[in-house]
Design a protein that fits this description.
Layout (H helix, E strand, L loop, with lengths): L4 E4 L4 E4 L13 H6 L3 H5 L12 H5 L12 E6 L4 E5 H17 L7 E5 L4 H13 L2 E5 L5 H11 L3 E4 L4 H5 L10 E4 L9 E3 H6 L15 E7 L7 E6 L2 H11 L8 E4 L6 H13 L3 E5 L5 H11 L3 E4 L1 H9 L2 H5 L8 E5 L5 H10 L4 E5 L9 E2 L13 E2 L5 E4 L12 E5 L9 E2 L3 H6 L1 E2 L2 E10 L5 E6 L4 E3 L2 E3 L1 H8 L5 E11 L3 E10 L7 H14 L8 E4 L13 H9 L13
Parallel strand pairs: 3-13, 5-6, 5-7, 6-10, 7-8, 8-9, 12-13, 12-14, 14-15, 15-16, 28-29
Antiparallel strand pairs: 1-2, 3-4, 10-11, 11-21, 16-17, 17-18, 19-20, 20-23, 22-23, 23-24, 25-26, 27-28
Bound molecules: adenosine monophosphate (AMP).
Length: about 575
């Protein structure tokens, strides 16, 4: 166990002694940081242009070119059979080139530029370049299938899409349904077809200098689609001002110091991979590791060992998968370079915290946030005692509370809706073309997270569950409606209701209840065919692992399938009086 970290078993708390930690934390005292916090605490860390504008990508990368960080390695990329490194200067120049490519093809500021790529250097370069150009950059998880892509790129009316030769066939299937899409830029050794451009050739045709666009703080910067209970995924829009919160939380929560080798395992198709895989860490001047390969527990330990990772930010399902391999695997590698571990995305069970303390010598620090919040809101800090199982305390300057359905605060210990007082810099600025949806997030002066939680007498927040039907599988947020819509497109499926079923490893797995069209038998082959159908159309991670065929599904008076009843039945819980269920 690390010096300065002590297990206090009687009340299940991990006690910190700051003076004995491997490194003095950037935030030494939580209460003191809260007391002295102001908007200026954020602002003094960030470089604004003389006219009061800023650019998040400039802050992440280019501002370091005036310092010794210029020639430091910013990115270490690990591929299947090669590795590449980029200094801050190289990242700045490559992303400038990408901005120049957009300019060359007449793309306008504010147009949507989408990236559908695996974790390759081009993804990071085009993200930064798009932001420098003043485009609205959208990312797409590489597991998405054609329907999921169309729901996002089509809705955003993107004019540019960057993809790889392997992923492009999924675009080809839906290309004619995306009339706004003008340019498809394909990476790698690729001979472009009609209406396509070669990434490499385009990058070689332009120079490495670019006048980074000055963006008013609340102008659109990037967008991500996220799922709610109903309807198609919604486009969450973030601004350049996000960088204030992302920089400071990376510094105070992930405790990034300039000499850190930092590894965020998240894919930039999700918000963590952007805020803490690109903007926040580079703004803090670290060397960042990107492992472009598929998850493999042994490879992960090897990455830490080989690259001497010091700060590691990952997710509970991955931690549980590594735990499943047993401590022997962890012991095979030298993990002594690690000094801070953090986790996000789904509930982190206390066993995982105790496991890492015992087997890695450090506890995982859970933290909570969402696509919409643009940065971490509640966290366990390097200098603060941990209550394993708790998400920790609100970041300095953030007011969090548990509220009732009218937005009134509930007393300590009571479960309710987790709410945050708006005003922090990285809160989304809009939902793409859906003001009504945006407004639904706010109640009585609070931003409502959609999660249920409670707060204890010491101010620690404890996650209880989603307030809606949204599913969290392996840390991926999945909307049941998307899956249900895809299911009923299969010729054999008449009706579908989808729920998250608790799962020890993945948090939840997706379970579908269906009725079949006349003439179909519920054979194993048919179930496999339905699973494949969803995997291909929607996403590799969003298919139902379990399908149950029923003669009929429970419905409201107006005919909507009642997922809550399906879930209660699955869990063997009392369904209650269904006649009182609201018809919503
Ligand atoms: P996303 O917007 O995809 O990042 O998903 C956000 C959702 O993930 C939250 O609304 C929570 O339901 C869940 N989540 C994120 N972090 C945590 C955490 N530390 N503990 C429990 N649930 C979490």
């Amino acid at each position: 166990m690390e010096d300065g970290v002590e297990e206090k078993t009687e009340d299940k708390i991990i006690v910190k002694d700051v003076s004995k930690l491997k490194k003095e934390p950037n935030m030494k005292d939580y209460d003191e940081a809260c007391a002295s916090f102001s908007e200026d605490t954020y602002k003094k860390e960030i470089e604004f242009f003389d006219d009061g504008t800023l650019n998040a990508a400039y802050n992440a990368v280019d501002r370091h070119l005036k310092t010794p960080l210029k020639d430091k390695t910013a990115l270490v990329w690990i591929g299947d059979d090669s590795e590449k490194t980029f200094t801050y200067k190289e990242l700045a120049e490559e992303s400038n080139r990408f901005a120049n490519v957009l300019a060359k093809h007449g793309v306008q500021r504010g147009e949507r530029v989408f990236l559908f790529l695996p974790r390759v250097p081009e993804l990071y370069i085009s993200f930064l370049g798009g932001m420098k150009f003043g485009a609205v950059v959208g990312t797409l998880f590489a597991a998405f299938g054609p329907s999921a892509i169309l729901d996002r790129v089509g809705n955003a009316e993107a004019s540019v899409l960057v993809t790889s030769p392997e992923l492009k066939p999924r675009i080809d299937e839906i290309r004619d349904q995306m009339p706004a899409l003008k340019h498809i830029i394909v990476t790698g050794d690729y001979e472009p077809g009609d209406g396509e451009l070669s990434f490499d050739k385009e990058m070689a045709s332009v120079g490495p200098d670019f006048d980074i666009v000055h963006m008013p703080p609340k102008e659109r910067a990037y967008m991500l689609y996220t799922s709610g209970t109903t309807g198609k995924p919604k486009g969450v829009i973030h601004s350049h001002y996000d960088i204030l919160h992302q920089h400071l939380t990376a510094k105070w929560i992930l405790d990034l110091h300039e000499d850190d080798v930092y590894w965020c395992t998240a894919d930039p198709g999700w918000v963590t991979g952007i805020a803490y895989g690109i903007l926040g860490p580079w703004s803090n001047g670290v060397t960042s590791i990107v492992d472009g390969r598929r998850f493999d527990p042994e490879n992960w330990y090897k990455v830490i060992h080989d690259h001497k990772v010091s700060v590691w930010y990952t997710a509970p399902t991955a931690i549980r998968m590594m735990m499943r391999e047993g401590p022997e695997l962890a012991k095979k590698y030298d993990l002594s370079s690690l000094r801070f571990l953090a986790s996000v995305g789904e509930p982190l069970n206390p066993e995982a915290v105790w496991w890492s303390l015992e087997n890695i010598g450090l506890p995982f620090h859970d933290n909570f946030w969402q696509t919409e919040t643009g940065g971490i809101l509640i966290a366990n800090y390097a200098s603060m005692d941990i209550k394993p199982g708790s998400m920790g305390k609100p970041f300095p300057g953030i007011t969090a509370a548990i509220v009732d359905k009218d937005g009134n605060e509930k007393p300590v210990g009571k479960a309710g809706d987790l709410a945050i007082r708006p005003g922090w810099p990285s809160l989304m600025i809009e939902i793409w073309k859906n003001k009504e949806k945006f407004d639904e997030y706010f109640r009585n002066g609070w931003y409502i997270t959609g999660d249920k939680a409670r707060v204890d007498e010491d101010g620690y927040f404890w996650f209880i569950g989603r307030a809606d039907d949204v599913i969290n599988t392996s840390g991926h947020r999945v909307g049941p409606f998307e899956i249900e819509s895809a299911l009923i497109e299969h010729p054999a499926v008449a009706e579908a209701g989808v729920i998250g079923k608790p799962d020890e490893l993945r948090g939840e797995i997706i379970k579908a209840f269906i009725t079949l069209q006349k003439g179909y038998d519920p054979s194993d082959d048919l179930m496999e065919d339905i699973k494949k159908f969803i995997k291909k159309r929607l996403a590799g991670h969003a298919y139902p692992k379990e399908i149950e065929v029923r003669d009929s599904l429970p419905k409201t008076r107006s005919g909507k399938i009642m997922r809550r009843v399906l879930k209660a039945q699955e869990l063997g819980e009392d369904i209650g009086d269904t006649s009182t269920l609201e018809d919503d």
